[in-house]
Each structure stands twice: as C-alpha cells, then as structure tokens.
Amino acid sequence: MIQDDDKTFIFLSALELSYKKMSDIISHFERPSDFFDAFLNEQDFLVKEFGALYVEYRAKYNDFSFDTFEKYLIKNNVHYVTIQSQFYPSKLLNLNQPPLILYYKGDFSLIDSKCLAIVGTRNPTFYGKDITQKFAKDLTDAGFTIVSGLSTGVDKISHETALDNNAKTIAVLGNGFEKMYPAININLSKEIALKGLLITEYYPTYQARSYSFPARNRIIAALSDGVLITEAAQKSGSLYTKDFALELGVEVFSVPGNVTSLKSVGTNNIIKFGHAQCVTSANDILNHYGIKKKEIKTKIQLNFDEQIIYNYLQSGDKSFDELQIYTNLSVQSLNTCLTTMQIRGIIKKLPGNYYSI
Predict the structure, then answer these.
(1) d(C-alpha 341, C-alpha 177), whole Å
(2) Neighbours of 89 (CB within 10 A)
(3) E strands present in the chain
C-alpha cells in the first residue's frame, strides 16, 4: 500500500511541476502528507503557488486514484523511491537538486555497483561507434556497470554492448515509462528493464521535453564513478554531463578524435582545456582506478592468405585495392578471405571499401 507521505510525491510528479515548485511545496509542510489538507482547503500558500492552474490541479486530483496507480505499478513491475526513503541512493544526495522521487524498473541494487557513464553524440561516425563499442566491452569485462541515457547513437551503442557482453547497464531516462523516447529504443528499454535498470524522476506519462534531457544528465553523472565521452560535437548535450561531473568531483575521460571532424570538436576541446583526461584505451581508465585488466589470450587460427592479410592490417587501415596489390590474390580469393575474416570477427569493413583489425 502506498504510504501517505509518498502520495504527495506521486501526485505532485503527476502534475509535472518544475523541480523548484515541487521542492518548495514539499519543504513548506512539516510532513509531505499535510499537503492534501492544505490543497483541499485552498490554503493561501498553495493558491499562490499554483496560480491560475489551481482549478485544473483540483480537477486532476478529483480524477486521480492511488488504488489505480498502485495496480499500474504492480502490473508493470514499476517501483519508486522518494528522497525520504532509507533506500534512496546516497550518491544522488550530492546533487544541488537531488530527484525528489525516482521511478524504476529492474535491479535497483546496480546503483551501488561500480558505475562508469559512457555518453556522446547521437549521430556518431564509424570511428565513434567503433571506439564506443571497444571501450564499453573492455570496461564491462573489468566489472563496470555502464550508465547512459538511452538516446540514439553513443548511448544506444553503450547499452547494447553491455548487454551483448552479458554485463549490467543502467539507463537514465528523460521521460516517463509510458512515453519512451526515442521510440526506436522501446525494445532496448524492455531488455534493460529485464537485465539491468531503467530509472527516471518523471511520472510514467511524462513526455520528454528539451530541458528534461540536461536534467537527466545530472543523474547520470551522480550515479557514476567516472564519465567517458567517446565522441561529441562542440554543442553536444553530453557536455552537460561533463559539467555536472566536474561539479560533483567525478572524473571525466575523453577520447581524442580527428581534428578535422566536427563530431570530435567537443571531445578534443575538453581535453585541450583540461576538463577531461585524455584516454586512448580502456586501460587508461582502469589504471586510474587501480584495476588490472584481465588478459584473455585467444589464438587466432588463420590460413596462409588470411595471415598475410592480418599482418598487413596491423600497420593500419587498408583499402581493398591495397590489399589486392600486397597479397597478389585474385579479386574472388581476396573477397572470400575478407568475408570469412569479417564473419569470424577478426577484421571489420569500413566505409569506402577499407578494412581494419
């Protein structure tokens, strides 16, 4: 059964009030549950706070059923915790504006695990996709829970890589559970709810706004022991996460990118101006935390032609034409070798008919 104090947090979040207004109202009363008597009796404080919306909010209260909401929670495996609860994450109390209520699906204990946030552009280059996957895999191999914001691009890649690696991931949302954004990530959100943790400060029917994503980023930073930005443009939203991390004393890491790429201006700048540690592999991050990477030596079985190709690619990315000239193989034979090596995960095909290890 929903406790009386909790009802105030739930109802005020259902009204979609600003953080300040909701905080001011709750702090005004000795107990949060005192709100309802004051609300129904049209206390001057609340009439002034709600202004012209007071009548609308009274109508919403008349239509609101806590019994129905509790049934919703049970049916959809949704839980919540308020800032007054003993189970409220202590990490979030370091924020200037700690969430007053959190709704979640999944394993809440992951909040207390070793967490590393990976954030970045919603439209990564091939380079951005590749390094995000590499960092996410190596960091989860080392035992980190990956935290991100369930947006497209770097966020999506980070969550998916963690799940593919049978590791844990936390997705912090800028919307309510019934208004998933972007819609393309609905199936991913369901998988995270089963294998990781979905968390949001927004009521289930809250639809994402432009300002809800920067607000979400403060939670990402606060939950994490470190923040990694793999690829970001000059005005990337992920730089808000960097700012929150620096305010909290959370270490920020950044991967350098091509100096001619607009998608790397943000990451290169925060390195240049000393706002982040420059990292070129997950080992740099693991060393920072005194963690030794588990070395797993796997012998790659290659035939003679494949070994020649592999050795040549160790010096850098090569085009199909360069590989053909170097190996002296026919087009058909080279295509067969490259396709086989791609299927086995030994090499990758890059844009422009280039290949890399």
Answers:
(1) 41
(2) 20
(3) 79-82, 101-106, 115-119, 145-148, 169-172, 197-200, 226-229, 251-254, 277-278, 318-319, 348-350, 354-356
**For residue 296, what pLDDT band results from cuts at 50, 70 and 90?**
very low
- Is residue 189 within 8 A of residue 198, CB to CB? The reply is yes
SS3 95: coil
Q: What is the largest CA-CA distance in the chain?
A: 88
Sorted by where each begins, the domain ranges of the chain are: 1-75, 108-288, 304-356
Contact between 296 and 334 under an 8 Å Cβ cutoff? The reply is no
What burial class does residue 353 get, using C-beta atoms within 10 Å of its C-beta: 0-12 exposed, 13-18 middle, 19+ buried?
exposed
Domain 108-288 CATH (choose: 3.40.50.1970, 3.40.50.450, 1.10.4160.10, 3.40.50.300): 3.40.50.450
Residues 109-136 pLDDT 10s = 999 999 999 999 999 999 999 999 999 9
Q: How far apart are CA 202 and CA 290, in angstroms?
A: 36
Tell me the sheet residues that pair with 252: 227
Which residue shows structure tokens 């929150």?
244
Question: What angle separates helix 331-343 from helix 320-327, to the nearest 10 degrees?
Answer: 110
Going edge to edge, which strands form the sheet with 145-148?
79-82, 101-106, 197-200, 169-172, 145-148, 115-119, 226-229, 251-254, 277-278
Round to whole Å and give the CA distance between 166 and 189: 16
Q: How many other C-beta atoms can be found within 10 angstroms of the C-beta atom of residue 55? A: 9
Is residue 271 over pLDDT 60? yes
Sign of torsion over alpha carbons 180, 181, 182, 185: negative
Q: Give the pLDDT mean for 141-145.
A: 96
Residue bearing tokens 């992951």: 110
